[in-house]
Design brief:
It contains eight helices and two strands; from the N terminus they run H-H-H-H-H-H-E-E-H-H. It is mostly helical.
Length: 156
Amino acid sequence: MKKNLDKYGEILYHLINFRLEQYKDSKSMIGVDFDSFMIISCIGSHYLRTKTKEGSNWDFIWEQTRSSNNYKHLNSKKLTIFAVSNIVSLPKETVRRKIEILKKKKLISYSRNDGLLPTEKTEELMKPFATKELKVLANFLKALKKNKSLDQLLNF
């Protein structure tokens, strides 16, 4: 039997506003379209999963992003254009084209040996974005908690 959410409309309202804020901020703060933002996010997710320790703090993770030693260790777990294409459900040629633009903006690096990686400029642009996004996410969750729909959603 399906569970109903009493405040389904309220939850969707806050979720949609969270997503809209993310969309607007990706354009204004990072200067990329949303598909490119999703590609950067995919690269960031891969990097976090393969290169950071569980429980790492905010500053340590950004410090690791800047470290040139990280590139040496990613060869065995490199992220490819084909993998990103599958993850974000975009045609491979579209991903390749967008990656070329992101490389020109120095937001990512790519080589056949190392795959797709974040750059120092990634930190420069993404750190303020991530800070704002965490605040927006916190407000989203607080709104759900205030409406007594957070627990209901978590138990959905």
